[in-house]
Design a protein that fits this description.
Number of strands: 7
Strand content: 5-15%
GO molecular function: ATP binding; ATP hydrolysis activity
Protein name: ArsA/GET3 Anion-transporting ATPase-like domain-containing protein
Pfam families: ArsA_ATPase
Strand order of the largest sheet: 3-2-4-1-5-6-7
Organism: Capillimicrobium parvum
Family: Belongs to the arsA ATPase family.
Structural class: alpha/beta
Length: about 280
Amino acid sequence: MLDHRLLFVTGKGGVGKSSVAAALGALAAERGKRAVVAEVHRRTDVEHVVTAAGADHVSIDPQDAMEEYLVDQLPRALAELLSSSRAFAYLAAATPGMRELLTVGKVWELAQDQRRTPGAEPYDLVVVDAPATGHGVAMLAAPKTFADAAMAGPIARQGRIIHEMLADPARTAIVAVTTPEEMPVNETLALRDGLEQANGQHLALVVVNGLRRKRLTAEEAGALESHREHPAVTAALGLHVLALEQRAQLRRLRRHIGAPTTTVPYIAGGADIAAIARRLDGALA
């Protein structure tokens, strides 16, 4: 998994995809790779954890990406004129899919041996904390959509180059993150279908985050039923039912997803990036 050049991590909002992306970046750095975790929409949720682990962190803003692209593609005077043009900025922002194209274009640039930024070193691995499921699919499909629409010219050529990398399973892998609950599992299955239909891509791995430990056997749970009036027993039985429901959703996911899965246990007190990295390290070994 970490031998890919691009690793997109997506999933339903709130399932822990940013934590998984940070853990993958930290794990890659631990294995001696020059890695960067790229977040979108100016998010910096896990920056300190990622950099402390030895990986780089970048927050991608479509406006910044557009200005960088213009400087690279056009004569400097024209690039500065367009970058400072409010009308051009409004036009770019209003064009459907343009923000996704600019974002994924910057992601692609980070994964090149010859970086657009003067003096910038190439990365062995770019881990993308991608937008939530639907927007993530739109971002991955944007280069092909624009290339097909333009048919010829620099946008079509650039779109095809980026799409070729995104659609190449040897260079790009897509990791879905979910929790073992009905709606997130449904969305993960929809993500699989959306990727295949939009771009012909397949999930390389599904990380099931927050799996509760099953602490009681069926016999033990049955024996406790007669003491349900006690608050501690009520809480224990509630967690037991939750653990059973999560495993039912996990089985449903594995039955239908058609991709490798791994689990990350529920961590009390919030996301522990180091613990998630250790868990993924074992799963990816």
